Prior knowledge:
The complex is a heterodimer.
Chain A: H1 9-33, H2 38-49, H3 52-62, H4 66-84, H5 86-115, E1 127-132, H6 145-154, E2 159-167, H7 169-172, E3 178-182, E4 185-189, E5 191-194, H8 198-202, E6 225-228, H9 230-235, H10 243-258, E7 263-264, H11 267-270, E8 274-277, H12 289-293, E9 297-300, H13 301-306, E10 315-320, H14 330-345, E11 353-354, E12 360-365, H15 383-386
Helix pairs in contact in A: 1-2, 1-3
Chain B: H1 9-26, E1 31-32, H2 33-43, H3 52-64, E2 68-74, E3 80-86, H4 88-112
Antiparallel strand pairs in B: 1-3, 2-3
Amino acid sequence: MSWKKFFRRRRWDEERAHELDAHLEMETAENIARGMSGEDAAAAAHRKLGNTTLLREEIYRMNSLGLIETLWQDLHYGARTLRKSPGFTIVAVLTLALGIGVNTAIFSMVDWLVFQQLPVQDPKALTYLGFIRGGPLHNDVQFSFPEYRQITEECGKEFDGMAAVSFGGASGGQSGPDGLTFQGKTRPVQTYFVTANFFSLLGLQPALGRFFAAREGNAAGGDPVVILSWEYWHSRCPRGSDGGAQERVAGRLKAAALGRVACLNGYRRAVRLKAFVFERLLRGRPQRRLVSIFRKIAIPADDLFANGNSHQPLRLAGVPGYFSTICSHRRPLSNYLFRLLDQHFGLPSMTPWSSNSGPQSAWLPSPSVRPRRSGRALLPPGPSRSA
Amino acid sequence: MPKRGAQPLQGEVLQGTLDLLVLQTLVMGPAHGHTIAYAIERRSDDVLQVEHGSLYPALHRLEDRGWIASFWGTSENNRKARYYRLTPAGRKQLAAQTSRWDQLVRAVNRVLRPASE
């Protein structure tokens, strides 16, 4: 019978009632046969059997889960008690609400920071390279553009590809916010400069238009192209109250954006930029971490650096060529790479260290080393250092 | 929540004994509750008075454990009655409980009459 008995209590109860009745009849009949009168016989039978209701209840309880049976009563009792003392109720509810809210908020943040993967094609294969070189910007100074060039040449076999990212404008600190002129209005934007291969390396698809072509950024000022983030695109495309109006506005903006109407910081003496919309990497999902990496606008970095601004510090993001998962092979990769870097850039006492979360990072702490200022601008005189 | 099955040790022992007696009675063949009660009394020379009321919960418990099975039949004087019969699992259980009972009796006897051993 096992657990099924819990669902057949009523039927069982009827069965047992019949059974007890049968027992009483038999006993009464025997008593009569022993010479008792009818009434006496029935009473004696009842006495002998005991309280049949109690017996049925005992069997009924065997078929019940006591917890569930009494839970409803407990709930009622609890509700009555709470109603009687509203002050306590309010305090309790508020405490619970605050506790749950705080926990939810903390979890959302941890989820966003730690557990969410970058919405790129192969987030686990992504590695950040960085050097700690001492100085005021000791854990944020990475590479100069010539260094980036050299590393890609020397260590190219280590990676599927290597792209560089640099903060521009609003987050760069040295030049204040950039402004994007769009349909006659200029608004501050945060910009990032990336190498032309950046998007293809991450395996992203644009929502509208295209990303940088491979040849773009090779000649100084040759390719005034910006990529707008989905977020930014929508912030400058006011959503109408009804879907139809919104679609019309989006259509106009799309036509405008794909033409030449945007202009960054009067870039190239107001040569108008081509603007393309990127992101919407995973359909229907809002951007999370990627938004914080290139939040507003991306510009081909080669263009920027070829233009003489070679002191801009760069972040390098590379995809290792022959490792499907980076976890088991990250360390050997780092060691080899750092050995190469050691040979080429002369950075002694290198100890690779890997972070567990987010894009895989490989930092190289060698704080005692002073940057070499001579030579082919191998090291980035960071903004504060040159100041 | 009321505690169930938390009876004193003596009650436990008696309960187990009733199970054993019921199982043993059913070895002869299927029987209904009334017969079982009287069979136990008769075979113990009326020393063991089965409380008829406690018999039915015991029967239900044994059936729930799968040691006996029940069916509706017609009694010797042409009444409908619920019959019980021993299942193979019940037969095994009877053997196990009987040997345990023997052990218990021997042990108690050893304590009560150490000299006679």
